[in-house]
Amino acid sequence: xxxxxxxxxxxxxxxxxxxxxxxxxxxxxxxxxxxxxxxxxxxxxxxxxxxxxxxxxxxxxxxxxxxxxxxxxxxxxxxxxxxxxxxxxxxxxxxxxxxxxxxxxxxxxxxxxxxxxxxxxxxxxxxxxxxxxxxxxxxxxxxxxxxxxxxxxxxxxxxxxxxxxxxxxxxxxxxxxxxxxxxxxxxxxxxxxxxxxxxxxxxxxxxxxxxxxxxxxxxxxxxxxxxxxxxxxxxxxxxxxxxxxxxxxxxxxxxxxxxxxxxxxxxxxxxxxxxxxxxxxxxxxxxxxxxxxxxxxxxxxxxxxxxxxxxxxxxxxxxxxxxxxxxxxxxxxxxxxxxxxxxxxxxxxxxxxxxxxxxxxxxxxxxxxxxxxxxxxxxxxxxxxxxxxxxxxxxxxxxxxxxxxxxxxxxxxxxxxxxxxxxxxxxxxxxxxxxxxxxxxxxxxxxxxxxxxxxxxxxxxxxxxxxxxxxxxxxxxxxxxxxxxxxxxxxxxxxxxxxxxxxxxxxxxxxxxxxxxxxxxxxxxxxxxxxxxxxxxxxxxxxxxxxxxxxxxxxxxxxxxxxxxxxxxxxxxxxxxxxxxxxxxxxxxxxxxxxxxxxxxxxxxxxxxxxxxxxxxxxxxxxxxxxxxxxxxxxxxxxxxxxxxxxxxxxxxxxxxxxxxxxxxxxxxxxxxxxxxxxxxxxxxxxxxxxxxxxxxxxxxxxxxxxxxxxxxxxxxxxxxxxxxxxxxxxxxxxxxxxxxxxxxxxxxxxxxxxxxxxxxxx
Length: 763
Ligand SMILES: *Cc1c(COP(=O)(O)O)cnc(C)c1O
Hints:
Sulfurates the molybdenum cofactor. Sulfation of molybdenum is essential for xanthine dehydrogenase (XDH) and aldehyde oxidase (ADO) enzymes in which molybdenum cofactor is liganded by 1 oxygen and 1 sulfur atom in active form. It contains 21 helices and 35 strands. It folds into three domains: 44-328, Type I PLP-dependent aspartate aminotransferase-like (Major domain) (Aspartate Aminotransferase, domain 2, 3-Layer(aba) Sandwich), CATH 3.40.640; 333-478, Aspartate Aminotransferase, domain 1, CATH 3.90.1150.10; 485-760, no CATH class.
């Protein structure tokens, strides 16, 4: 039923393709951040530059004939778009929606101890910020009362207005910039009924009462509608829904100009904007420099617009509205089109399932995208792995960017919605902020939970191609089709780097090793599951000392004596040593909370990267401390994503995240190279020197895969390796040769010798 609504008529579709041809071509882009900023059309900019080239525009305050009335004409165009005239509303130009909110906050007549500012939790930062001036201005407003008292030029009527009228503001977004939820516009008239205003009718309400509780009966409610996100794809009719104050940013409607917005003020509410304090440029009707005399202008926009308005940008609005009207003056078709695309995206994302049935995409919304009256063209989500854990949104965003897909991530300046939609607690968030996290930084997962999300938002020129590309990208990059695994005796193929050598050749996977605890002994397995960071559970734990420094065999030879083992069924990791017996910890992050075990997030460095994890508890710490002779802890890496350093060089490789390994997810060794080295070492030994066995050398190099069937050192020229069994083929990209390090000289007893490093140096 919806499908026929998605596509615009052919002529409009063709026109938009030409106007936005910069999205196609060589660097074809999928732009899905229209709530961040939508795009401007080519002819819109052409018309604007032609306008600039053919007129002489000077400062409107100077009475320049071309500029003088232009701003007022454009005010009329803006009001007309929202179906009102300048008898009903005034249009005050501001630096943006935020600027509009600030003008309102600073000029509104707040009454000390009485005024209330009530807002939805799901509001933009710029709306929530109004609460701060409410508080501070209350004191100031009181001071001004005193001052006005002694001013002669106020009529009795004006005075009573200031003394006895208590103004209150209820603020909500016409559309949430987080989830795209459209809140009912009938709330405007509900709230304005004053006494009848029943808060319980409004869902998701967070009330902020400034400086004490006023008497509701003497209250006078004004509605602030944040329409910044709403108006880009929806019709706002202010005759039908007469909000008192409306804020807008124009770049969200037609992409250009930036830094210009407006505060639309209903004429009957203008009397509340009398708290003018700063004045500048053309805003005073009169003032004296050497004494405290200032008389503001009476026309609202003249009074509130300090300095010279952005008159060239204001002119650009004319061309923006012209173009938008050309696409769809009613905005109804745009709304249908963008909503249908959002619905298509919502449905396609919900269909994505991992091999075990787990959902790939978690969508945060109040609706199920069935009604364009309650849902706008925004989809906010996170991507999950098959095991249900969340993939960091920064990782998803970076990968998407590498495919030229533009999205936005974080909390989108709407912490209220973020906290409630992601089920975070305010205490939670406070701790996170206090520990150094700030809005917009790189931290995306804390204690396994996402602290933000990814937003895809659509604009009037978006197409099914944009939506389908995003779904395809998620499917290709994150959908786990089956449990990938490797098994001994699997076939191994490779692609050589140089095209001259013979192409792929079958080899055999001889052995698989994993090292759950960094620098401790290997576990040899016959078959093992692969995950995002390599072999499952490989290098997920590390031992750190009292200073949080990660221990390795380079520093602490005794680690070579600790034998880990894994029991998948019991879900345990066991550490064992001859002298101290064994100790167990839970294998999975979810099971870690064990009575009163503390979960200290700690930081350490691996290969120059800061990595964080959590303490696996006192019991294992005691065991390790006893074994090594000083205080140390077992730390499990948390789910925060860590990237391979060389990742820029490996093209077309979607997954380059690491556990606690130094440089890559897997380390491979060939038995022919090991044999070659072994012969070399042993041939150089003196009579009484002890020979190094094959297995001993393999063990020293700490590989994950031992492969046989090629010549010695042939692997240095490989660029890709494939491991194939009945179920699947897994492709690996070679990221480079592993660095030599002195750890290969430590034997199983913790003794350090010279080989095989010495012989390697002679090759
Ligand atoms: C974008 C936006 C704002 C802020 O707009 P600026 O142009 O950054 O001032 C406020 N509210 C909502 C709902 C928005 O989407």
